[in-house]
Amino acid sequence: MTESSYRIQGATGEWEVVIGLEVHAQVTSNAKLFSGAATAFGAEPNSQVSLIDAAMPGMLPVPNRECIRQAVRTGMAIDAQINRWSRFDRKNYFYADLPQGYQISQLYHPLVGEGAIEIEPAEGVTKTIGVERIHVEQDAGKLMHDQHPTRSYVDLNRSGVALMEIVSRPDMRSPAEAGAYVKKLRSILRYVGSCDGNMDEGSMRADVNVSVRRPGEPFGTRTETKNVNSVRFVQAVVEIEAKRQVGVIEDGGTIVQETRLFDPDKFETRSMRSKEDAHDYRYFPDPDLLPLELDDAFLAECRASLPELPDAKRKRYEGELGLPAYNADVLTAEIETARWFEALLDALAKPDLARQASNWVISDLFGALNRLGKDIEDSPVTPRQGAELLGLVADGTLSGTLAKQVFEIMLETGDDPARIVEEKGLKQTSDTGAIEAAIADVMAANADKVADYRGGKDKLFGFFVGQTMKAMGGKANPGVVNELLKKALG
């Protein structure tokens, strides 16, 4: 299904979905946005809270340079406008997990302006999604409702943690597009190193804005479903909320602009509160913080520190290395996979084998890791060992069948392939005398099939190849077997 064909089928006709996403990404840094407190995941409640995070009287915030740097690098990675002058604002609201009674954010003058992200929601389909802005802000704390039968406790470990809020334009039109956008954004953030992308730990989460309209008509009223923490759930929220809105409208109701919550157990959204507008928060410039002014040297350092990004790497793999588009896409989707493959190519030092290497990683290595329940960073086989195995196949030491046997032993023992070949006697043979003797035995035992082959049943050739390889214990060079069989069978 392409990006333009997704429609909700209502009782009165078709409806189009309009989607925008506000992604909150926790900045990878050495401390919080305005304090030196740690940000490790899973720490004991209230063990990572400075006096600033707890909003003690007289405490003044000081911006963390690394947090600003990471946000700027993220903006550069999506070709966004970097604003040399930006400012912090106070967003005023009162809640138990917000010690200051306000959140320091950026409304009027964000650090990063407009950019774009290219997605591929379906094979062969590309679409550019606009990014309206990236601003930095501090996170709130967390209420804990399951610690006491009648009380709620407050954990301020997340209070003051640096977030990038990455706000898309309402350019997405299907669950698939929303999912592809989150995946691509996560990939970019992880390549840049500005966010670890661990959605299950809450370091990346999305607020999903959804509205519906008749195709071609103006935008409808949107709802915002907060803190959705997986790609699958983002797609589910789009579908569930769009269908709910169509049902309300077709029953004669109206959509209320509101904030909603997603229940992953019941797979439904439910109302949380009416949606506030900017004026409800009484924004004003934070008097404790000077505006941020970025100089040429800082911007140059940010740009120079960027790695090769996934789109550029994918194009290089296709162009320079001649990889199929599918292989290039799979190998560049995750930074860890790309690093492992690059290390494999460096160890192999044979660019002409890049295609074979990519096929081996995607089929053999990924298959084994999936079976073992391991990630590529935990692979029992190193890139150097993988390169050595591929080299043994390339120089004729191992056949494809033998290579699979050696690979299984490598997975179990961690031994190098050359050592396994030597110890197990698995070296491929091109000894024509031994192969000719095996062929003679196979032909003698299958005289009827020899006659059939010579009578025109060419497809039997594969049978003779298989029988000869079996007789040789899989150690015969397949090229030599084919050549000698053709001569013997006439």
UniProtKB/TrEMBL annotation:
Keywords attached to this entry: ATP-binding, Ligase, Nucleotide-binding, Protein biosynthesis, Transferase
GO terms, molecular function: asparaginyl-tRNA synthase (glutamine-hydrolyzing) activity; ATP binding; glutaminyl-tRNA synthase (glutamine-hydrolyzing) activity; transferase activity
Domain Asn/Gln amidotransferase: 339-489
SUPFAM superfamilies xref list: GatB/YqeY motif (SSF89095), Glutamine synthetase/guanido kinase (SSF55931)
Record-level GO BP terms: glutaminyl-tRNAGln biosynthesis via transamidation; translation
InterPro entries the UniProt entry points to: Asn/Gln-tRNA_amidoTrfase_suB/E (IPR017959), Asn/Gln-tRNA_Trfase_suB/E_cat (IPR006075), Asn/Gln_amidotransferase (IPR018027), Asn/Gln_tRNA_amidoTrase-B-like (IPR003789), GatB (IPR004413), GatB_C_1 (IPR042114), GatB_Yqey_C_2 (IPR023168), Gln-tRNA_amidoTrfase_suB_CS (IPR017958)
Keyword Flavoprotein: no
Catalyzed reaction equations: L-aspartyl-tRNA(Asn) + L-glutamine + ATP + H2O = L-asparaginyl-tRNA(Asn) + L-glutamate + ADP + phosphate + 2 H(+); L-glutamyl-tRNA(Gln) + L-glutamine + ATP + H2O = L-glutaminyl-tRNA(Gln) + L-glutamate + ADP + phosphate + H(+)
Principal EC category: ligase
EC annotation from Swiss-Prot or TrEMBL: 6.3.5.-
Annotated PANTHER family: GLUTAMYL-TRNA GLN AMIDOTRANSFERASE SUBUNIT B MITOCHONDRIAL AND PROKARYOTIC PET112-RELATED (PTHR11659), GLUTAMYL-TRNA(GLN) AMIDOTRANSFERASE SUBUNIT B, MITOCHONDRIAL (PTHR11659:SF0)
Family: Belongs to the GatB/GatE family. GatB subfamily.
Subunit and interaction comment: Heterotrimer of A, B and C subunits.
NCBIfam families cross-referenced by the UniProt entry: gatB (TIGR00133), PRK05477.1-2 (NF004012), PRK05477.1-4 (NF004014), PRK05477.1-5 (NF004015)
Record function comment: Allows the formation of correctly charged Asn-tRNA(Asn) or Gln-tRNA(Gln) through the transamidation of misacylated Asp-tRNA(Asn) or Glu-tRNA(Gln) in organisms which lack either or both of asparaginyl-tRNA or glutaminyl-tRNA synthetases. The reaction takes place in the presence of glutamine and ATP through an activated phospho-Asp-tRNA(Asn) or phospho-Glu-tRNA(Gln).
The name this protein goes by in its record: Aspartyl/glutamyl-tRNA(Asn/Gln) amidotransferase subunit B
Gene (UniProt): gatB
